Amino acid sequence: MDPVSNACDELFDCTAGRLLIALSGGMDSMVLAHALAQTAKRRDALGRIEAIHVDHGIHPESARWSALCQARAAALGIRFEARSLTVPPGSNLEARARAARYRVFDSLLDGGDVLVLAHHAGDQTESLLLHLFQGRGLYGMPGARELGSGRLMRPLLGLPRETLSGYARAHQLEWIEDPSNADLSLDRNFLRRRLLPMLLERFDGLPRRLERVAHAVADMGTALDELAGLARHPLPLEVFDGLSQPARLALLRRWLAG
Q1: What is the reported pTM?
Q2: Looking at residue 79, what is its pLDDT?
């Protein structure tokens, strides 16, 4: 099998519950939906797959996009559900839309269910750099984490975007091109279209290097969690005994972030 199908195949061994695909209609999510549906057919498990489309109501074409996603899901033989929402007012439209979208996903997950997202290695590189530039630390998107009553998984996170686009061409897939992806006033678009191409040209193998650093930081955080018992709420004050001030602050920040 190809790398995309291999990554999707492993999902079926992770849970016996439903696999809910976040289907935006873009190339990445269309590739994920197609690969998961084909894998489910081979495993006689198509009934476990469901596509979820969230209409943020921001773009004037959003209703048409929802209809296209529904048609694509029907062609793949998988269930489809669309949810409309209103993004609350405020600054940072990207963050507000994301928070509203994840509240919808959270509400749909039952115990044993997995929300499957189509993020790839390029998205991970962008997230690492954005978090660094925003002063939030050097960390990226986890491959898996808890979400509501279920889990969130990103099976394609280790694959470059070129692999996904090759899959899309090989299977003659169609997808939606969101015009907002060209809006350079959005931080991620500016990074993707202006800054990142220069960085990649200058620093060979940058995505792999950033991924190694992110893994090292994540491992250190996990070790701190285990050593200090940061999963406990409330946090016992005795874990701070004998620690230096920088260590105390680091542990407190880690606990608050969790």
Answers
A1: 0.83
A2: 96
